[in-house]
Design a protein that fits this description.
With 181 residues, this protein is α+β, with helices and mostly antiparallel strands. It has a domain of 114 residues: 2-Layer Sandwich (TolA/TonB C-terminal domain). The chain is 17% helix and 27% strand. The strands form 2 sheets. Strands 1, 2, 3, 5, 6, 8 and 9 form a 7-stranded mixed beta sheet that branches. It has a two-stranded antiparallel sheet with strand order 4-7. The chain is rod-shaped and about 125 Å long.
Length: 181
């Protein structure tokens, strides 16, 4: 009788040591729940988030270089002529070039931005409409430099008038083999 418990105990130990050829499943670690970082609340004096330029939207030039989207389309400028409707077209005297953004350069973005600009009779750029855009801040850079265009106003019947003008800015990476010759 004393042999029976020893026999049972040895059978249990041997059966636990012997395997059927299958491995025990690995314990699955539970993913830690993702915790969102708290959204910082804007403090007085903080600047608003930058405006992203969208196609067919109009923007007003500001003195500090930020973009202001024109929401009220009812206040369209009066008496803005097309280049064909004026006697003497507006003459651009200085057209700055836009710079690449770091993100666009890293992403290898190339192409062109087309803007429709109102050149006023007083020698200022009034508004800019996006006709064709590029991502990664290139459109915004093109709008900023379009606001700095210097020009002689168009004339009609001997008087200075405002004129719409299509402006194209080309963005090409210098080391691109596609555009080399």
């Amino acid at each position: 009788m004393k042999l029976f418990p020893i026999l049972v105990l040895s059978i249990l130990i041997i059966s636990n040591l012997a395997q059927s050829g299958r491995k025990l499943p690995k314990p699955v670690s539970q993913p830690t729940p993702a915790v969102e970082a708290p959204t910082p609340q804007p403090k007085p004096g903080d600047e608003p988030p930058p405006v992203t330029a969208e196609k067919n939207e109009e923007y007003r030039c500001t003195e500090d270089g930020t973009l202001a989207r024109i929401i009220d389309k009812q206040n369209e400028p009066a008496n803005v002529f097309s280049p064909k409707a004026v006697d003497v077209r507006a003459e651009i005297t200085d057209r700055p070039k836009p710079s690449y953004t770091r993100e666009a350069n890293r992403a290898g973005i190339q192409g062109y931005v087309i803007l429709k600009v109102v050149l006023t009779s007083t020698g200022e750029v009034d508004r800019v409409r996006v006709v064709r855009r590029l991502p990664y801040g290139l459109t915004e850079n093109a709008i900023r430099v379009a606001c700095k265009i210097k020009f002689k106003p168009a004339t009609k019947d001997g008087q200075p008038v405002s004129q719409w003008l299509d402006v194209e800015y080309t963005f090409r990476l210098a080391d691109s083999s596609i555009y080399r010759q």
